[in-house]
Amino acid sequence: MMFGTRLRAAMDEHGPLCVGIDPHDHLLEAWGLPRTVEGLREFSLRTVTELAGNVAAVKPQSAFYEQHGSAGVAVLEETLAACREHDLLSVLDIKRGDIGSTMGAYARAYLDPSSALAADSITVSPYLGFGALEPAFGLAEAHDRGVFVLALTSNPEGAEVQHAQCGEAVDGFGGSVAGSIVGQVAARNSAHSPRDPGRFGLVVGATIGSAARELGFDPTDCKGPILAPGVGAQGAGIRELIDVFGSEAIAANQILATTSRAVLSAGPDGVRAAARSLNESLTQVG
Ligand SMILES: O=C(O)c1cc(=O)[nH]c(=O)n1[C@@H]1O[C@H](COP(=O)(O)O)[C@@H](O)[C@H]1O
């Protein structure tokens, strides 16, 4: 089944929430775990078992595994394997972007099923040019995976790059860098529609307010899934999600709202209930 279809089916079944697996040191401590690779493993595998069957996807944040060196990356591999074993979709948050030949190596690392680091989908950064991401797009198609391209990120610093005007406007998407990214993702999803989403998605923060409107485009026109971080610890909630995306796109399960700290801080015995509660409030929209 095509990634966009698989994700939509998971959202229809489990709700529109993706819980990020961000093993911050303070969260390991709050869970009574050591700030070691052993603590990292227990935190990660417990989160997968608690959330499988309760959320549409999880989003391991590679950085928190890399900070432990190769032993941490080995835990990330175990975490992704656990997702596969539990039939839990994964969005591996790596935000990689590089020149084409190097991007090819990244694509093989994270999208080729023969790799221990392969995920169902990944985040990528178009800062070296949208076209430089082609190797990731190609492998995603070859192995039926998904790619979420950063467009309007949840951090305030992103605006200086993403809101910049880049000359030629992409029809219907305005002339900003972000609009150009959204328009190019929409073009790759041209055979799809909001009801039949493509495998190429966007990352658009729930904290961006009216930015997309002011830049002259609607991110939901990308005809793919939209990963929406910023919920919870970064201050966004249901109201902000509706302001950015509209209740129709949320109710149609195009928006994969994602939060990490707000759910993980509930602890090992509370993470499932916290996810179900947030999912419940999200499914009330529309
Ligand atoms: O690609 C991402 O997931 C991402 C994009 C973005 O614009 N903002 C953003 O916060 N993220 C990631 O989403 C997670 C947010 O974590 P919380 O703020 O704890 O919910 C972190 O792992 C971020 O790196």
UniProtKB/TrEMBL annotation:
Q: Its Enzyme Commission number?
A: 4.1.1.23
Which Gene3D superfamilies does this entry report, sorted A to Z? Aldolase class I
Q: Where is the Orotidine 5'-phosphate decarboxylase domain?
A: 16-276
Which InterPro entries does the UniProt entry name for this protein?
Aldolase_TIM, OMPdecase_type-2, OMPdeCOase_dom, RibuloseP-bd_barrel
**Molecular-function GO term, any one:** orotidine-5'-phosphate decarboxylase activity
Give the GO biological process terms: 'de novo' pyrimidine nucleobase biosynthetic process; 'de novo' UMP biosynthetic process
User: Which chemical reaction does it catalyze?
Assistant: orotidine 5'-phosphate + H(+) = UMP + CO2
Q: Which UniProt keywords apply?
A: Decarboxylase, Lyase, Pyrimidine biosynthesis
The UniProt entry, under Pfam families, shows: OMPdecase (PF00215)
Give the top-rank taxon of the lineage listed in the UniProt record for this protein: Bacteria
User: Which pathway does it take part in?
Assistant: Pyrimidine metabolism; UMP biosynthesis via de novo pathway; UMP from orotate: step 2/2
Family statement? Belongs to the OMP decarboxylase family. Type 2 subfamily.
Protein name per the record: Orotidine-5'-phosphate decarboxylase
What organism does this protein naturally occur in?
Answer: Brevibacterium antiquum
